[in-house]
Amino acid sequence: MSIDPLRDPDAVQLSRSDRLVGADGRSLRRARAAGTLTSIRRGVYAEASVWSELAGRERHLLRMRAVLDTRKGDAVFGFESAAAIWNLPVIGAWPEAVHVFTADGRRRSSGGGVIWHNAPLSDGDVAEIDGVLVTSRVRTLLDLARRSGFMSAIATLDRAFAGAVKEEHTTDAAGRLRATLLDRIDALDGAPGTARARVAVQFASHLSGSPGESASRVQIHLCGFPAPVLQYPVVDRYGTLWHADVGWPEHRLLGEFDGFTKYTRAEYTQGQSIEEIVWAEKKREDLMRAAGYGMSRWLWSDALRAPLLTRILLDAGLPRRRSGANSRSSDRNTRRTA
């Protein structure tokens, strides 16, 4: 969709707004019954045709807009809600409940589609983006690394590290962000979730090109395969430089994650048809294979399930460093995270 769910003034309709002009909200309830409106929060509605077209992140942003329009006082969005504003990915469904910190220090009970967090926020932990209060990027990454499943935390951190490199035009930016996060973790002095956060921050990389690549790297690790080289360079017979998503040079094997967005989103397709993209991918793969490499490809369904990705990589001749015992537990963990 081309709307901004959080900031578009016409994104939601409020029954209380109807009452201000002399209506009583019954027209909105009738529209909901007729299927033209969708209720996203008590007294807040969205056009059903718009809602059905929104992706998970956009729906979450719309729920955040509903919270802003129906409560008094400042709301500081955190956790996945902050990630939605910072455009940081999560693996799995975006939550239906909105995550909010109490800005005034009062304790509140969660309910009505809002999860309240009563933990204190310092001035440096709060940012304002287009008039919306949100936990800072560092605080958001820290909170999600402490609470999220490993796979989702890595996807979030990888995007943040890559974004830092892009913004500052130097790979040193990823190292500085990593150091900042580790310092913050150390300052928490063993609070719940800090051990898992430290592992995630140390594992994260700015070289992952997508959440699917991040998920694949986590699954490769959990299944006991050797760590791949990310964005592995291959020069074809014409001298053209290509980069595979991952590579194991000692095994002459390349790996590629095939995500749907590669074939559908404008920023990736650049005006090409799906047929043109598939043909270009085939020529690219043929050239890399001709340089003396094997090639394995997998989809989201494979990346999220340890047995599937394990079979693909074993069939390609990649040895495991550990037995398969961990794959069953990692698969359970992945399914809980996804």
List the helices and strands and how they pair.
Blueprint: E1 13-14, H1 15-20, H2 26-34, E2 37-41, E3 44-47, H3 48-51, H4 56-70, E4 75-77, H5 79-86, E5 98-102, E6 114-117, E7 126-129, E8 132-135, H6 137-147, H7 150-168, H8 172-187, H9 194-203, H10 211-222, E9 229-235, E10 241-248, E11 253-257, H11 261-264, H12 266-269, H13 274-290, E12 294-298, H14 300-303, H15 306-315, H16 325-337
Parallel strand pairs: 4-8, 5-6, 11-12
Antiparallel strand pairs: 1-3, 2-3, 4-5, 7-8, 9-10, 10-11
Helix pairs in contact: 5-6, 6-7, 6-9, 7-8, 7-9, 7-10, 8-9
Number of folding domains? 3
Low-confidence stretches: 18-23, 327-338
Number of helices: 16
H/E element string?
EHHEEHHEHEEEEHHHHHEEEHHHEHHH
Terminal CA distance reads 24 Å
Core attributes:
338 residues; Endonuclease, Chain A; 3 domains; 4-stranded mixed sheet; 12 strands; 48% helix; disordered C terminus
Write a brief structural summary:
This protein has 338 residues and is α/β, with parallel strands linked by helices. It has helices at residues 15-20, 26-34, 48-51, 56-70, 79-86, 137-147, 150-168, 172-187, 194-203, 211-222, 261-264, 266-269, 274-290, 300-303, 306-315, 325-337, and strands spanning 13-14, 37-41, 44-47, 75-77, 98-102, 114-117, 126-129, 132-135, 229-235, 241-248, 253-257, 294-298. Helix 6 packs across helix 9 (194-203) and helix 7 (150-168) crosses helix 10.
